[in-house]
Amino acid sequence: MNATCEPSSPTSMPDDAPVPMTSEERGVWVFLITNLAAAIAYGFVIVPRALSQPIDEVSWVTPMLWAIGLQIVGTIVGSIVAAIGSAVGQTLRGGTIEPDVTDERDKEIARQGSRVSYAVLGTGTLAALILAMLSADTFWIGNTIFAFGVVGSAAEAIVKIRAYRWGV
User: What pTM value is reported for the model?
Assistant: First the structure.
């Protein structure tokens, strides 16, 4: 029998072994969760208002600013907590904490995610521009931009997570 298999090294991991999560991937997960949580919270505040009163009377600016602020602060705090939790978990498992290094794979994953995000944001910009040309209420213009921002960011995060988990 003519086998051309390479011998497996004792340090190689089996194909189905769990892949450790890098700090970059953890950050993407935190961003996705905080982004969606803030957007959902914003929706819970704004939708009842929009259904119960005329659109031009809906107070949406302050809740949107709070949602954007929560997205930013939540991502920062969540990333810090995730990094600390990862370091503590690694220490408890007896491993050494080694700094993550951004490599070419991380850069390619970031490029893939950005391409998707730019496409969604470009579409949202066009939609907001059309609404402005039609003299739509600022509620619709602002919420269109916000919605496409959330969808674009979520799409970017999902593309990145998929690439981290299943390859570029």
Answer: 0.80
